[in-house]
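name: query_chain
kind: protein
chains: 1
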Amino acid sequence: MTRLKNRVAVITGGISGIGRATAELFADQGAQVVVADIHADRGIRAAREMSSDARNIEFIQVDVTSQESQGILFDEVITRYGRVDTVVAAAGISSANYVSGEVSTPSEDPEENFLYQRPLEDWHKVLQVNLTGVLLTNQLAVQHMLRLNIPGSIINLASIAGRRPLPGAGDYCVSKAGVIMLTQVMAAEMAAQNIRINAIGPGFIETPMTASIRQSPMWQEVMIGMTPMQRLGQASEIAETALFLASDQSSYFTGETLFPSGGMYVG
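structure:
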């Protein structure tokens, strides 16, 4: 259980869902984990809940849309631990109205959210968090890894929505497609520097982000119907994928997007 022994891992969006499951697994595998999120009170509480004698998990507040805030995050990590080996960019939102920890009632009519009538500010917010935020995380991580001569691993959270269009979630789909291409470009740029950059494109996963959708019998049926394995995934299954990409077992992987999606995407 020491595949990440002596490594320092930063996980944005690490206080719930896939990010939290990944933080717990990485810590169980010997990593010093820093979870970063915009919600300070919840972040401190989550880090305390996840930590134990065998788990080293700390919290640092960050706004992933702010270059200054992300710079402070990485500077603080380097000050505390002297290095950063693995970064998981898991912070994201499903829509402009998404608030982590809150469950809202989804519309039964996806056309209400079709792109032709969506406010431009909604588009900007989703891309700012889901795409620009990931870019900033990657930039800061690479800069520190280069300066410290660390052969690092960066893992970006994309989505099956980056490959399959989901009507009513156009801004989300575009943002995640952007994450996939961002991953490919930066991986190509950094391959010779021994910094590996990969992504994960989950299918429908049981997390707080999908809670509002799952409470609707109609949408629950839609998600199951789109998934050949006929079930939703678990956050722990995505965390295991992240562990593979963070560990030496994936040493020849870069620029890849793995799709743990129950068979939704096999291209």
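note: The chain has eight helices and nine strands.
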